[in-house]
Amino acid sequence: MHSPPPAARPAVSWLFRMAWRDSRRSRARLLLFMASIVLGIAALVGINSFGDNLARSINDQARELLGADLVLSANQPFARTLEPRLRGLGVARVQEVAFASLVEFRPGRGVRLAQVRARSGGFFYGDWETEPRSAAQQFGRAGTAPGALVDDVLLTQFGAKVGDSVQVGRIILPITGRVLKTPGQSGFASAVAPTVFIPQALVVGTGLVQRGSRVQYRRSYQFAPGTDVDAVVKTLQVQLDQADIDADTVAGRQKQVGRSFADLTRYLSLVAFVALLLGCVGVASAVNLYVREKLAAVAVLRCLGASGRQALLIYLIQTAGLGLVGAVLGAALGAAVQSVLPRVLGDFLPVAITMSVSWPAVLMGLATGLLMAVLFALLPLLSIRRVSPLRVLRVAFEDDTSAPDPIRGVVLGVIGLFILGFAYNQTHSWKLTLGFGAGLLVAFAALAGMGRLLMWLVRRFFPAGWGYVWRQGLANLYRPQNQTLTLVTSVGLGTFLLATLFLTQALLLGRVQLASQGSQANLVLFDIQSEQLAGVKSLLTSQQLPVLLQVPIVTMRLTAINGRSTTALKKDTTTGIPPWVLSREYRVTYRDSLNASEKLLQGTAPTRGPDGTPLISVESGYLERAKLKLGDTLDFNVQGAPLRTIVGGTRELDRSRVEPSFLVVFPAGVLEQAPQFHVLLTRTSTTAALATVQQNLVQQFPNVSAIDLGLILSTVEDILGKISFVVRFMAGFSILTGLLVLSSSVVISRYQRVRESVLLRTLGASRQQILRITLVEYGLLGLLASLAGIGLAVLAAWALAIWVFEVGFGPAVLPLLGLAALVTALTAGIGLFNSRDVLRRSPLEVLRAEG
Amino acid sequence: MSILRVDNLTKTYASAGHELTVLQAVSFELQPADTFAIVGPSGSGKTTLLGLCAGLDRATSGSVWLNGIQLDNLSEDQRAAVRNQHVGFIFQNFQLLPTLTALENVLVPLELRGQRGAAKTALALLDRVGLADRAQHYPAQLSGGEQQRVSLARAFANRPALLFADEPTGNLDPDTSERVVSLLFDLNREAGTTLVLVTHDLDLAARTQRTLRLRGGAVLADYANIAHAQPNA
Fold first, then answer.
1. Beta carbons of B99 and A26 less than 8 Å apart
2. Cβ contact (<8 Å) for B154 and A304?
């Protein structure tokens, strides 16, 4: 007896040759399958390349971001004792006092809350761009007539121009320049808090800086080139900490800004990754159908002596090769996409970006895309190993490829690990990584479940009595080699992303709009001094405006918890108490009861204990984060006077109401004599009334500020619009990928269905009938996919509404139906478009062409 | 040593909850250069027997020795290596790879073995079957007879010890059939290959030295063909 010969060992080049030869008639088609990954890779490369460019630009322009080498800032004037040390810092310095205030534009008499920055000079670094250019150069210079530089956003809003004047508090200044760009301030920041620059010398004259006003005091320093600013700050750190002064250096700003934008690009690249995954699902599905076509050829190869591994390698090389082509196309497109991103993200960016192709990003995108495509393609390709050569003898051979394959499980595991690894690399958080993985799993499982349910329902309740066209179209949904699962998943996921975006945006806007409706307050007046209270109230009354709520506010600092000083607690890293709890300025109010927007959770409402100690009420989330419990003592410094309190109860806040909310509420009878200011809430029914109140306030009580909720609403809408544009742009890759997957699915099913359509036409079916069958099939698929995606999005938005935003949920039905109609029409349209060949040509011509 | 030994070969399938025996205790032995026909009506087990003899499938019981190698316990990949080294195939529906040219189809078994000068051998074989000028044509561009001749060239490319032919003329008209059969026997004689021919064409079977007649999976008869006795003599 002889032993079996060793396995045939052809040269590796033969595997490549066979892969090339075998792909001859399918290259265009295979490339279309691989096109599914192009957009995902493009999005990934685009975002990561942009992220690299942004990081580099931030590094290059860090000094411009800060506008100085060092900025010191505090909530109170710098302590006099520090002055000798501070005076010796740097070679030049600029002082700034910043606060929010109503400003009035003349002669238009428009009033708006703005950020006032009173500076003793310009910025040391970066472009402070103004119109005219000389305005920035002359700002604060001795001998120059005082004037204000006003943000372009404000001037545009009120139709004001250089030469007009602006009233800030008690002073009226000519507008000497329009500010187009301020170092370190993005367009986004300007929209939220537009700025008016005035000379620092005038700040006292405005009368706006008073007791209780929220004011930031800043000093910017320029150092001699080569100075180690961080080392200088280190020597001052203890004194700065004691004086509650924050130090911001170029290196610190670089790190902070770089980190937040790295986070942004990382999260956006997760959205891109979803598009890539979607494309990979399309690849797997297309390769699955391709493999079924190739079973006969594989059986012949096996018959001629090729091993299962060799046969698998031939097709793996083929798909990987085309995957590489797809990945390269994607990377090239990505390099183009990144040049669009600065325009998409423009308003959010703090620096001007210099664009160049980031090769690490390109290589990473190529590798990620190719690896994912190959892994997903491997799932169907694995069955090639098990193709029996007996297929060459028997056409209807029993299914040799359907038995469970443990390697398939391994590949699925690798895909899962890769996805989690990628998500972790982007988020650096296991919680978010697992959330992302679970979210994907749920979305994919839910959509695939819907697809299966549809197939089951159609089969189970098949309408045998319906016309032929309907029966044929419906049967196509569950017949062997159907595309139902793939299309419902890919098109459904795209629709899900779009619908979720729409619903979440509507939720956020709805929440803000809710606040501005009905009898709720729409104008908040704050920084009212006690002696001004009666006057402001009578101003409102004279205009027939109600005082909906009046709240006194006292500022204080926490000095100890349960007798341990905050200084000691700050040093003890084991307490788990966040630093802001220990160092923030507390703005508290006092009353003996809870109001309508508060709910008692534990203990009592604010009251005084038997010994007169105040039993304060704290917000429930604050209690948890500050690691407090009922009965704990909190020592406060109320503007110089020490005060011990006991945590007597906790409250939950309804934040959707327009009311000042407080972490800490004192009982009445404790703080009445403390320095305080007041907030008044009112409601104006017309914009004219609103303008009148604001103008009167500026005239009579210039330090009192007013927040117009209508303006807030439009600002929020504007911000959400900008954010949603960015997300929509990214989600667009998923939608387009879904459509590409749809196209390739339709094209491959055309190859499968062509014989059947030809047979039908040979048997007498008209083109119209074939067209209607196709329309029914793809129309139903599109309808189901869109409804599944929308259903999932409604569930997700409902969960967000209930658990995150804590508001009622009632989705707008009409736009969602519109979206469903659009997706259905697109799916049916692409289905028909790709089947046009079969419809247009004669049966014989098609049969010959398909070989 | 016999080139093919089949010993008590039985094949059963599980079908609709009960066992279906498609081949029952078949035994025979062939010597090098023998020509052998397996005949029988449809469903008699001819193709099943051919599949088992060529190592395309496993028997439920019994053994197959091919060129001294017992196939029963070999893995599918080991049997693939045996096929590549010792076996050639011809099929009723030609089974050419549609995306490969005629020449590339003939090259496959040679390239699989990593043989040097494969192209020269393949071209010589195509020339032998009269298709040297069609070497760069794809199967779809060839007639049925031409495709079967390419298939013949491929079958002899690796100089097999055994050639299995499954209804080689089943898809051809009589004239083309005759040309292909002549070529088959000529090539077989030249190469000294053992030929196992599955057919229900009794005239074709009669051109071999010996016929095994099957019915219902069992051997009905095993006899020498008198008219063509000693065809190689």
1. yes
2. yes
- Could you tell me which residues of chain A have a Cβ less than 8 Å from any Cβ in chain B? 1-11, 14, 17-18, 21-26, 296-297, 300-310, 388-390, 392-394, 851
Distance, in Å, from the CA atom of A153 to the CA atom of B150, rounded to the nearest integer, reads 80
B32-60+74-224 CATH: 3.40.50.300
Q: Chain A partners of B50 at a C-beta cutoff of 8 Å? A: 393
Asked if the Cβ–Cβ distance from B83 to A304 is below 8 Å, we say: yes
Where residue A158 falls (left for φ over 0; alpha for ψ -120 to 50; beta otherwise) is alpha
3-state secondary structure of A355: coil
Distance CA A560, CA A575 (A): 13
Characterise A207 by phi-psi region: left (phi > 0), alpha (psi -120 to 50), beta (else). left
Nearby residues of A396 by Cβ (< 8 Å), 6 or more positions away: none
Specify the residue for token string 């997957």.
Answer: A741
- A389 → closest Cβ in B47, B56, B69: B56
- Domains in chain B: boundaries: 32-60+74-224
Using an 8 Å Cβ cutoff, are A330 and A42 in contact?
Answer: yes
B76 with A14: Cβ contact below 8 A: no
Question: Phi and psi dihedrals of A809, rounded to 5?
Answer: -130, 120
pLDDT tens figures, B145-181 = 999 999 999 999 989 999 999 999 888 888 889 999 9
Residue with tokens 């075998």: A22
Domain spans, chain A:
13-67+250-400, 92-222, 441-518+709-851, 549-682
Q: Which residue on chain A is closest to B160 by alpha carbon?
A: A304
For A323-337, write each residue's pLDDT tens digit: 898 899 999 998 888
The 10s digit of each residue's pLDDT in B54-85 is 988 889 999 999 999 999 888 888 888 899 88
How many other C-beta atoms are found inside a 10 Å radius of the C-beta of residue A473? 21
DSSP string, A379-437: HHHGGGGG--GGGGT-TT---SS-S--HHHHHHHHHHHHHHHHHHHHHH--HHHHHHHH
Burial class from Cβ neighbours inside 10 Å (0-12, 13-18, 19+) for residue A704 reads: buried
- ipTM value of the model? 0.88
pLDDT tens, residue by residue, A109-147:
677 778 899 998 888 888 888 888 888 888 877 777 888
Cα A792 to Cα A787: distance, rounded to the nearest angstrom: 8
Cα separation, A139 vs A175, in Å, equals 11
Helix (H) or strand (E) holding B120: helix B118-128
Over range A169-174, report the average pLDDT: 88
